[in-house]
Amino acid sequence: MEYFYYRGQKCRHCKSVVPVFGLGHHKPKEEGDDQLTKTIINFYEYGNKREGAYLLQRLINLFKERFEGDVKFDVVCVVPTREKDGINPNMQPFAREFAGAVGVPCKQVIRRNRTIKSQHELENMDERIENVKGSIEVTEDVKGKSMLVLDNLCITGASSQEVFDALKNAGAKEVYFICFGLGSKGKESDFDINPAFKGKASDMVAKWHWPKVSTEKREEYAKAKKQV
Which of 3, 2, 1, 7 is closest to 153 using CA atoms? Predict the structure, then answer.
């Protein structure tokens, strides 16, 4: 069993959690090179087959350890690229292969309805949210269905939030995300999924509240609350 990571940020419009599971953390160039980031880039941008096979096996492992026997998904799909109607050409066959391995139908039920700016070019979260606002359209009936959405990176969560909103507004029952790399900024607030821990994905979403707070800080908060 392997270490994975969980980041479940609260939805900005309701009390739901936007659950994102990742294989590790992506480092921007200014933080220096790391192997996972190189692997992601080599596959996502250049279609390197060896790197793709490595990422595929790790995603399958994550699914089997944490989702199998827990959440029954109806559809696997991919987060679109920033271009109108764009889907990364390396992610399409990857998603089909992953879906076949875990026994879930693969169908691209969301599209980008307009070209947006690159999220990496924008300086703050508000700009990123505004950039993606209203850009995701649901193209198939997802009412009552459980959706598993694949992405290469989840840096701030703005894109995941937009996809989550679009699918939930279209009637989806559950929406989960799996990405290759979570953003390294704020990674101390993410949950490490220890291989010794046997819990399933739905348990984590229900009980693990992001951002993670240390035991010491939790005790300090509890003590301060009693004194008020």
Answer: 7
